[in-house]
Amino acid sequence: MTQPKTMTGGRSLLFERLIDFEPDHPTGDEPSATVLSMPDLKASIQREVARILDSRSTGTRRPDLGGTALDYGISDITHLDAASDADRRQVERMVRQAIIDFEPRLKRPRVTVSAGTGRGTMVTSISGEVVAGTVTERLEFDVGLRGPAATEPSQSG
Q: Which residues form a coiled coil (predicted)?
């Protein structure tokens, strides 16, 4: 019987396990195909958080149910003003809850939203802890959000 090994990484997401990023180099069912190193785990978490923030939910989330597939993402933010402190705090709460519901690999998430450099943009600074086996590391990254004022006017010609 094989003895358990200490992990220094974490398990990849289901959809990442279903995608063959290198089809010319088959890996089979090796553990390395489903267990990510700590740097790869952090990159996977960043990709998933970006996907969450790029997705829009129905906006009718029921807190008693937690996050369901219909709640994946964040509510529409196009009506919010990046210059408003109250609106930025609302986005912070929304993003934090979405991370708690849909990216449990990021522990104790903290979210700060600030006005971006472009018109109508917001910068979301996210931090938290990544736990893999007995190893805990801090993860910090930024994700940009765009509102309606940030969209480019259509070109008629």
A: none
Give the tokens for residue 139.
Answer: 């993860």
CA 28 distance to own-chain centroid: 28
| pTM of the full structure | 0.72
What is the CATH classification number for the domain harbouring 99?
A: 3.10.450.40
* From 15-19, 38-42, 123-127, the region with the lowest mean pLDDT: 15-19
> What would the DSSP string read from start to end of 65-80?
G---GGG-SB---TTS
Q: Which amino acid does the sequence have at 27?
A: T
- Amino acid, res. 65: L
Task: Give me the helices (H) in 29-146, please.
Answer: 38-54, 85-102
Q: Taking residues 84-105, report their average pLDDT.
A: 93
